[in-house]
Structures are given as C-alpha cells and as structure tokens.
C-alpha cells in the first residue's frame, strides 16, 4: 500500500512539473495597436501613410531560456492616403484612402537580450481580404471597389518587444513587402506598427 501511494505521488508530482514546464514554455496571447502604412518603390511616388489598426492572436514557445519562436494571425489595415489634386481649379481626385486590408501570418524568431526584452524577426505572409478607395473614411459612403492589388504579399517583419508584469507587453515592429503589390510594378508594402498585448 505504501509503495502504491509513493508511486502515485511520484506520478502526480511528475505530471504537475511537466504541466508547469509546458505552461512556461508555451503561451497564448492577443495583441493590438496602430499601423502607419504606405506603398514604396521606384514606380510609385511615396504617398502619405494610412493610419489604421491591427488586432489578432499570438502563440509563443520557448526553445531555450533566451530563444523563442512565435506565430501570429491578425487583421492588418494597410494601404495609403491619396491627396486631392486639382487642374485649373477643378478637383481631379479628392482626398481619399486606398484601403488594403490583410490577414497577416508572421513566423518570428525571438532573442531575449535581458529579462523581458527581446528583438524578433522573420517572414510574414499576407492574404488580402479587402481592397477599396474610400473618399469618406469616417462615414458610410465614398467606397469604390478596385481590383488592382495582388492577393498575396510576402514580407519580412522585424521589431522589439518589452514584457511587463502580469502578462502585458508593448512592442514596435516594421514590415516590408518583397512581393509586388501591383503586377509588374515596383511598389511594395511598408508598415510601421506599435501596440500592446497580453499573454494568458
């Protein structure tokens, strides 16, 4: 009886320690923040950036104490602003937003420099879910559907993150698209983002 009790106790302790180890090495979370997005390239004059937002989910797993891998899936509002142009006092194009919205899926390698502070980088895969020109971004009207932007964008993401107490973190990141946004045109997504998150 004593041997059985001791054996069961050892099993219980082992399961508890394993669960704690898994919890420490794998975490789920959420992140959200603001995007400052534009298009850059030789065939595209640098327009003003579009200010929008991103929001989604995070999964991080530690390989060692200082190295981790992180996968994400999030909505990302991107694109650029179009300035009003006039010819002989006549408005040719009004102020508008060219809205290009994606589901972004980055796979990041994270290096922890000191406790809580990491730098990270990796490939990011963008899947377009919406594309339109909006002459009334704050209202319900002014939407014009377009079909000029490619459905997929391959990007590189890099940034820094600081983990605070109680699971909260802040981060800043830059992503650059290596795919042509428009077929046979040197135009690429360029996005700076900053925001906050929480690991459960």
Automatic annotation (TrEMBL):
UniProt keyword annotation of rRNA-binding present: no
TM helices/strands, residue ranges: none
Domain annotation Outer membrane protein beta-barrel: ranges: 19-181
A Pfam family: OMP_b-brl_2
Signal peptide start and end residues: 1-19
Key words, A-Z: Signal
Alphabetized InterPro entries for the sequence: Beta-barrel_OMP_2, OMP/PagP_B-barrel
Protein name: Outer membrane protein beta-barrel domain-containing protein
Organism: Aquimarina aggregata
The organism's taxonomic lineage, starting at the top: Bacteria, Pseudomonadati, Bacteroidota, Flavobacteriia, Flavobacteriales
